[in-house]
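User: Predict the structure for this protein chain, please.
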Amino acid sequence: MLKLRLKRTGRKRSPSYRLVVMESLSRRDGRPIEELGYYNPINKQYNFDVEKIKKRLNEGVKPTETVTFLLKKAEILK
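Assistant: Here is the predicted structure, written as structure tokens:
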């Protein structure tokens, strides 16, 4: 099952996340199928590829709870 989830990047105590499509059983920092954007929780900045995200959601990819919250905040989901 494919999931839309966050992959952690960045330094210690300075996290940054990439929004990726991954297999649900793969590890958090494993190899993604596709990268769809990024989120920086320190600066509260994000940049998402809206067209690709909507395409993946229509294909049946399930977002995690945190990703759902971020997509609602970015007004991609309602």
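The radius of gyration is 12 Å.
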